[in-house]
Amino acid sequence: MTETDAVPIVSDTDQEFFHREGYLVLPGLIDADYNARLMTELDELIIHREADDRHMLVTYPEMGHLTCHAPIIERLQLLLGPRFAMHHIHSARQDAGNRGVRWHQDYEQFPQTNRSHIMVHVFYYLNGLNGTIGDLLVLPQSQNIVISNGGLGLFGTEDLPGSLCVDDLPPGSAIIVHSALWHARRPKPGGENHPRYFIDISYCQHGVLWPAYPKIEQINDKALELGLGQDGNYEFLYDSTQFFNRGDYDAAFQERNEGSIALQMKGVGV
Description:
Layout: H1 12-21, E1 23-26, H2 32-50, H3 61-66, H4 70-80, E2 84-94, E3 101-104, E4 119-125, E5 133-138, E6 164-166, E7 173-178, E8 183-188, E9 196-205, E10 210-211, H5 216-225, E11 243-244, H6 250-256, H7 261-264
Parallel strand pairs: 10-11
Antiparallel strand pairs: 1-7, 2-9, 3-8, 4-7, 4-9, 5-6, 5-8
């Protein structure tokens, strides 16, 4: 699970590109042996789901380790700063005929008002992208346009002015995406004998509280119990104090959500 010499750390140019364009492609980031183990484990996960035998993803040894995988965490520390917390991990095997996902953004904020802090999704394509099943669509520089998560669904999975299509990546590739970047997965034919092995892991920059993922405290406690904090080096990844339960504030917010929120804050200290 060590980084290969072929994959350099993020350069200043790459950092500038990420902050400007909203994404960074890392071809072949995961070494072949670890990548193969992740794919095998994802197959096991699918079997467990079909049997309704569900477990926290952090309890799967290979996927759990991916949440604190040094080659990506070291890069994120250059992009987000020294401290950030994991929001969630999702894993899926996308088979032929997958319906895709409409244009959307995944930035967690309640309500959506600004992009003062960075949240990222790391998309892992364990067996790459090859133009079948689904292509990744991104709209560069859209991360700073404040819009609700599903407010772009009317565009389906069609190209947008300035959008890019990512459909050719080697196995073990990762793409770091600013979570507010507009993106979609466009369905494509083919892939009957080549399902896509996909994992995404999301991290939130320290400095503000973020809406929590369901059962985040149990997930983080389990991750630390399993040693994913790496002897204290990466315990900050599983810090539940960086999140709040949106449900605790929904009713009160809806009651006050009239007119200008800025005017309602008049006289409130920053």
